[in-house]
Write a structure and sequence with these properties.
This protein is an alpha/beta fold and about 350 residues long. The chain has 12 helices and 5 strands. InterPro entries: ATPase_AAA_core, P-loop_NTPase.
Length: about 350
């Protein structure tokens, strides 16, 4: 059975984030999210308090506290509205709208924006309540607090799904961009992501800097946001994990590769300038069939959706398909893409990381 995150897992992670020292164990995505939302709360609280200090000299304190909270709330609403609608309505320099190979998940982004606003507003009305107690501010704090429960749980849980796979970097599918992928291939990637039954296999071929790893991480990231358990690993590490007998996980792991719904296997073969494949399908299968775990390994590979990051030549694609078919994978569940670049063109940097995507 594939692993999902339980309420107990969430509580343990929350306890670690609230009590643990980030200087000792590093910063997790869940800790960063908590710190980010505390920042949003503070950006509602502090300006409201400062505005109250100014207004209370000109009007009654109860009125000043409510006006301050209302003004700061409207200010942040305007800011977040512009921040959200900007990518939709505004053009890049030169008057051309930004082109997306994969459209951003606007619904997901809108939900994130609403969550931020709830924290802004809660901070503002909390400050209002502390500055001058009013029933309106008290009701606003209670209502906003109740409205925050589900978004806070959803996003904290989502961050747990995103940090457990140990992706090498954070990358959304909408950030992946290239001029060298046909719409048919985009549709195949969508097919892989939207397939309801497990056991889909996506082979990504392409030369250096074609964006294979970036695309694999982006696809898996979107599936993690859908609360699918995932694992990212290099091929060399996976070969060693094939030998593991114990299916249990350590205290700092929510699941291993056998319990994941999505598996990303990176660097199976190096590609150009290394001409020959280092790992053949037969050699890969020999690692799978090891000791008494061979039946387990075969079953897991058959039942897990896997993204295979291959070399630059897809001439061996059929051999890899035959290998998977030999362990029971249906041919209809295999997709192969080659992210080859057009001859004579410079590689487009498909992994241009936009550091301004997080609010």
């Amino acid at each position: 059975m594939k692993k999902t995150i339980t309420g107990r897992n969430v509580f343990q992670q929350l306890k670690a984030d609230l009590i643990g020292k980030d200087s000792y164990r590093g910063v997790t995505l869940t800790y960063s999210w908590l710190a980010n939302q505390f920042g949003h709360f503070s950006l509602g609280f502090i300006p409201t308090f400062l505005l109250f200090l100014y207004l209370k000299k000109r009007m009654p304190e109860t009125q000043a506290s409510l006006y301050s909270a209302g003004a700061i709330s409207v200010l942040w609403l305007a800011f977040e509205t512009i921040n959200f609608l900007g990518p939709l309505l505004m053009s890049k320099p030169g008057g051309v709208k930004k082109h997306y190979v994969f459209q951003p998940a606007w619904g997901n982004i809108a939900f994130d924006t609403i969550t931020d606003l709830l924290f802004f507003w809660t901070g503002a009305f909390t400050a209002s309540l502390l500055c001058a107690e009013t029933s309106a501010a008290a009701i606003a704090v209670v209502v906003l607090g109740l409205l925050m429960i589900y978004p806070a749980y959803y996003w904290y849980l989502t961050k747990m799904y995103l940090q457990a796979p140990a992706y090498p970097f954070q990358f959304r599918l909408s950030q992946w961009n290239t001029e060298h992928i046909p719409q048919e291939d985009v549709a195949l990637i969508r097919q892989f992501m939207d397939h309801k039954t497990p056991g889909m296999h996506l082979f990504l071929f392409g030369p250096k800097r074609s964006g294979k790893t970036s695309l694999s991480v982006a696809i898996a990231t979107e599936l993690s946001i859908r609360h699918r358990s995932a694992v990212y690993t290099s091929a060399m590490k996976l070969y060693c994990m094939f030998f593991d007998h114990d299916e249990g996980t350590s205290n700092d792991m929510l699941w291993n590769w056998r319990k994941a719904s999505i598996l990303v296997i990176d660097d199976i073969n190096p590609g150009d300038p290394i001409k020959e494949d280092i790992i053949s399908p037969d050699r890969f299968l020999s690692f799978v069939d090891t000791f008494s775990t061979n039946d387990i390994n075969r079953t897991v590979l058959k039942e897990t959706s896997v993204i295979w990051v291959m070399g630059d030549s897809d001439t061996s694609s059929q051999k890899w398909r035959d290998m998977l078919h030999s362990i029971g994978v249906e041919r209809g569940k295999m997709i192969s893409l080659n992210l080859r670049l057009d001859a004579g063109t410079e590689p487009s940097t498909t992994a241009k990381y936009d550091l301004q995507t997080q609010s």
